[in-house]
Every structure is written in C-alpha cells, then in structure tokens.
C-alpha cells in the first residue's frame, strides 16, 4: 500500500510539472498576480472541512492558492489559445475548485482576445458549463463564474443572444440572494446584457423569465425590465417590444411585493412621458384590465407620482438603482483598454446601440474615470475626487442639488472610506438644510437606502445612524419613501450584526411613530409576507404599533394588510414568530372584536378561524 501511495504521489507531481510547463507565460489564470491586484480572499468552505475533489485532504494541506479575483484589465492574450481551449469545459466540470477558477479566467481571456477561433465554436456548451459553476455553493467561486459571464457578454455581444434565456433566469435568481456581493455581480452581468446584446432578444428573455414561479426571481426580473425601459428611452416607443412589455409592467403595480411595484411605477412614469404626446400610451392602456387601468390612472394623477417624475427627469435621477448604474458605468474604460489590444472577432451590429446605452448610463449619473467591479477587482485604491463646487467640501454658496450631485457620485464608490464620508455628508446636508430638503426627501432617502445593504458594516451602520437622525427630525416628511425604505430596513433586521439589527429596529420605531399608518401598512405587510424569515418576528411587533391608529383612520386597511399578514403567518413554526404573531392577533381582536373573523375580505376557512380563537383565548 505504501509503495502504491508513493507511485500515486509521483504521478501527480509529474502531471503538475507537465501542466506548469504548458501554461502560457501571460495567461489569464491566477498563477501570476498583477502587482496592484487586490489581496487574495480566503475561500469559505462552509461546513465541509475538505472541499470536493481533494480526496479527503484539507486544501491547506495541499498548499493550494486561495481564491483570487482577476480584474478584466489584468487579463492578457494567451500564448497557446487553442491548447488552452481544448480542456476548458472539462475543467469547469471538475470537482477541484482551483481548476474551475483557472478555467473561468481562461474562458474570460479567450472571450476577449481569441473568441473567433475558440469559444464561438462551442459557445452553448461553454455557457452551460459556466452557469453550472454559478450555482456552486462556494460563494467566491460563484462570483467568479458570474464575472466570467459578464466579460463574455461584454465582448461577444450579439453572439450571446441565443443564451439569454438561460442567463437571465440564472442572474435573476442570484440577484435575489442575501449575499450582497453575489447579488451585485449578478446585476452587473444583467446590465452588461442590456448594454451589449440585442435589445429585442434581452426583452424576450425577460418576458420568459417573468413567468418564473419564485416571487423573488420575478421581483428581480421586474427591476431588470425597469432598467430596459430606462436604457432604451424613447427608442422603445412604437416597437413590438413595447407591446410585449407594457401589459407586464402594468401588472407590476398590483404586486404584493414592494420591489416590482416600485419598478413598475418608475417604468410607467417614464413610458407615459415618452408616449403621451403620440397617444400610444392611451392605446396600450385600453388593452389592459379595468383594475390595472385604475392603478395606472391613480399613479399618474397623484401628486406624489408627479413629484417623483419631476425629480427623476431633472436632478440626474438620484435613485438607488441610478446609483448602481453610475458605479457600473465606470467599467466602460476598462473595456476600451482591453479592446485596443484585441482583434475584432465578433459581429458588432449592435455596437452603436451599445454605445448609445453606455452614454445614457453616463448621462444619468455616471462617474468619470476608469475602474472595475469592486474593491476585490480594482488594480489599486480609488483616489478621492478633486474638490469642486459639486463635489467634495461644500462651499457656502453651493446649492443643495450641486451638493447632492457630488455626494451621489462618491456614495457608490469602491473605497468604503469614501462611501462612509459621503453618507456622513448626506446626513449633515439633510440636517443642515431642512428648509430646502424637506419638500422632496425622496432622492436623499434613496441614497441612504442604497447603502443599507453595503458590504462594509461601518458604512451600513453609518447609513442607519443617519436615517435615525433624519427620521427623528423630518417625521412624516419621509413617508413618501416608505415603499423603498421599509423593505431595506426589514432586510437589515435579519443581519447577523447586533448593531445593524438594533439600529434598523430603532429607525423602524421612529417611522412607525411618525408616519401615516395608512401609508405604512402596505410596505410593512409586504415585508412580513415576502421578507427574510429571521426579521418576521420584529416586523410583526412593528405592525402591532400601528393597529389602533390604522383602525381609527381607515379600518378596511387593517383587515386588508394586518389581518391578512397575521393569517398567512399562522403557518410559521419559529417560536419567536409564533409569539409575535399571537400578540398581534390579540391586539387586533382587542380593537375590532369579533369582526376580525368576518371583515377580512373573504370568508376565512373554519380551520383558520379555529386557530385564531385558540390564540385569542390563550
């Protein structure tokens, strides 16, 4: 047995030496690190002490390299692309994560520099293999696979059109994950598809993905649809694609989840602005159901909707999604740097459209300067922007829009210190300019919301602390943003950090105390029904705070949102959720009495009534 083991070890050493001798000197894999590349990130092995493919031995015993992301600008042409291409797909299916990572980076380099003679010959099998790695339980490897898809989409452009159905569904699933860096990378991949692939094909893929059974996936698809409307702008008018998208967007307004409702609202307002003069909007609206027509008419005629439209079309669209677009637009210079070194290997029929979309993104708040995905992929630290009237320190004569512009650009930067400083400046601006900011707090609150999910805990905590001050000072002045604020706070209630959870709970208390309960009931109910299970108990406690005031102002909403959420939560098995739900049900019963069983919109099943009576009588 000992001699057999020694022979096996010798064979492995010989195979490793052979592969090392065949590897190009300037290959895309991570064997040679760029001098300014980010520090390597330790892989998370989860509950397994021994990763798959290592034959029961610890990866550290094998002196394996930790996972390290390679920025797009650090990829180089391969010396032997044909030989590298032969086993890329096989290595992607390997059980060894190090081989998979190396194959992903090789596929990226091949797509950028050698596509015509390699990946385009077997594109579909390659995409399927990369998508399989996207589903890997090791989060860093999953992110690396999504980065590969982003580069493939960016450089292969229209050649990726046939793969959009698979890619769109996969990215929508990943964009809905609780892991922030995975979700952000999936959004970048989808934005790359909107910018570089044929627009009609992307829309077709989104329409297909919109029928997914998972509500979280559908919510992300709704956000992607909103991006398409924003990116295409007036070019969408009069097209077959608008005919397909319009009824879907209208249906978003009636969704129970806040995210598709918000995406639908913004898309409808933009489409109305683009098409109202031609009469196309009214023509498309006539084809919708009566309930959907009422939702649209109510949205367009409301004063809140008009204010939101005025803000979105004037002050650089300061929205959380807009800031995400701004951070991504900086990758355009990264792409241009690599394009100078590569031959034109793909059909560029969509290049003019891509350029127009890129310009549209830049016009909506893009930040000047090159860059790449995030702090893990950047070649060096982000330099602080030079101080100017619209950026950096605020001179006494600066107007609020100019100051907000500078803050908005820096609050989505790669360096967490700059994001932290921008959050602090945003808080100081709102507290110091209450007269000017109080009339329309929406853009300010959405900038805060964009940082509540920050990967850096200090930035997220600073955003929550700022919101705590603002919520206390402005009171009901921020209730117009409850649709985006409440879901973000609910997500923070499930955070593993005690500080984050405590701050989020404190902000929600202030919101519940100062806001109109009629406006708060719906987003709070949606967060309970569709949010993270770990936050459900706390959200039920917050809902209990508005029961009496909601009943005094508008009793039907008490039954529509509070009672319905309580009934749905009866199926929960977590002890804390059951306890909080029981307390909520008793509070409702104390206010409305026996009508809790009869005024719930529809007749409650006998089994549900029995369970409610058991809780009330306990």
From TrEMBL:
Matching Gene3D superfamilies: Leucine-rich Repeat Variant
Region described as Disordered: spans on this chain: 1-58, 324-402
Domain of life: Eukaryota
InterPro entries for the chain: ARM-like, ARM-type_fold, CLASP_N_dom, TOG
Composition-biased stretches (Low complexity): 345-365
Biased composition (Basic and acidic residues): 9-20
Record GO terms (molecular function): microtubule binding
Cellular component, GO, one term: cytoplasmic microtubule
Domain (TOG) ranges: 74-310, 393-610
SUPFAM superfamilies in the record: ARM repeat
Compositional bias ranges of the Polar residues kind: 22-32, 324-335
Gene Ontology biological process terms, A to Z: microtubule cytoskeleton organization
Pfam families hit by this protein: CLASP_N (PF12348)
Protein name according to UniProt: TOG domain-containing protein
Taxonomic lineage: Eukaryota, Cryptophyceae, Cryptomonadales, Hemiselmidaceae, Hemiselmis
